[in-house]
Amino acid sequence: MLEQKFLLHESLDTAQNSALRVRPRRLRRTENLRALARETELRVSDLVYPLFVVHGQNVRAEISSMPDVFHLSLDELEREIARVSELGLRAVILFGLPAFKDEWGSEDYAENGIVQQAIRACKRVNPELVVMTDVCMCQYTSHGHCGIVRAGKIDNDATLEYLARTAVSHAAAGADIVAPSAMMDAQVGALRSALDANDFTDVAILAYAAKFASAFYGPFREAADSPPKFGDRRQYQMDPANAREALREVELDVAQGADMVMIKPALPYLDVIRQTRDAVRLPVAAYNVSGEYAMLKAAARNGWLDERKATLELLTGIKRAGADLILTYHAQDTARWLRE
Ligand code: PBG
Fold it and tell me: Which single residue of 60, 139, 160, 245 has CA 20 to 30 Å from 82?
């Protein structure tokens, strides 16, 4: 035996021998060694859980393209918030389905709109929970666009006032963070001014800074009943081909007073997340959107992917790319898995 090993050793030429002094596999040998060497750790406190709130009572209706995600009425929302809090999740983001839609999206900024009521319900159950809201018009407008439509066009500057009113109404209901997602120019500045003028100086802004015109929002639009009735969103959401422009959007939002910036979707834009992380000092969020979730769910349901392993790998990848927080429909499962 010994002799054989010695022979093997002798047979290696010097170059190969010295290359083998370096063996990255040494630190992969056991789980404890791997843990010591691990660079990125996904934590429950990185996650933000999106919720869809509807009018009515006892509504807990599964969204067909998003298995395990539900439309919830306020009573069911309260139960869900208790579960979410018990799992150790610290933040949610709310989306509402209004009772009616009109050209100006009136329920968006109504004192008793569905989201305003939902914010109060969350805070009743868990006053410590960070409650974020999406500030946009598409779920509330009859035409399904993210802004005010004039002469068949989305009027940027007219939309700012509506977004600002909506953000102020969310702040008044108790939101901690408002997240403008309409991709109107100067929306962050408009929200900051309106919030400050109404004494909501402590309400933070998470800017959907680089939101791409993505096919991966498909299931969300079913869930939120928000597809545009004419045209598409490419005149305001970004071209998926553009990373430099994304950084410019990020810089503009930072200059307008954003407290955090978001890249959305996450998976096709990991390079943009990395470049943003390297360019700014604010927390960077990534939105692991509905289509990304649906893809994984579909594959898992077919037995083609291990849902738990694939999800944890994917979320770790988003974090490794530079995201400090991740909005994901997998937040509850992930919280459970990280605890096990
Ligand atoms: C509202 C909004 C959208 C999403 C979040 N906020 C849809 C859209 O822009 O069409 C998508 C979220 C998801 O797909 O999970 N504008």
Answer: 139
* Per-run averaged pLDDT (10 residues), the chain, 340 residues: 53 69 96 98 98 98 97 98 98 97 95 98 98 97 95 95 98 98 98 98 98 97 91 95 98 98 98 98 98 98 98 98 98 96
Task: Say how many residues make up the chain.
Answer: 340
What is d(CA 267, CA 315) in angstroms, rounded to the nearest whole number? 9
d(CA 109, CA 186): 19
pLDDT tens, position by position, 90-137: 999 999 999 999 999 999 999 999 999 999 999 999 999 999 999 999
Residue 237 falls inside a structural domain: yes
pTM of the full predicted structure? 0.94
- 48-61 pLDDT, tens digit per residue, is 999 999 999 999 99
Tokens 């898995």 -> residue: 337
Tell me, what CATH number does 93's domain have? Answer: 3.20.20.70
Q: Is 239 a domain residue?
A: yes
Whether 24 is covered by a domain: the verdict is no
For the Cβ of 65 lying below 6 angstroms from any atom of ligand 1, the answer is no
- Residues 168, 151: Cα–Cα separation, whole Å: 28
Q: Closest ligand 1 atom to the C-alpha of 291?
A: 14
Please count the structural domains in the chain: 1
Query: Domain of 276?
Result: 43-339
pLDDT digits 0-9 by tens, 262-282: 999 999 999 999 999 999 999
Cα distances from 262 to residues 26, 80, 211, 290, in angstroms, run: 38, 25, 8, 16
> Of these residues, 5, 123, 211, 319, which one is catalytic?
211
Q: Does residue 23 sit within a domain?
A: no
Centre of ligand 1 to C-alpha 137, Å, is 11
User: Closest by alpha carbon to 136, among 191, 62, 173, 89?
Assistant: 191
Q: Residue 133, Cβ neighbours under 10 Å: how many?
A: 30
Mutation pick for ligand 1 pocket among 49, 95, 181 (CB with most ligand atoms within 8 Å): 181
Among this protein's residues, is 101 annotated catalytic? no
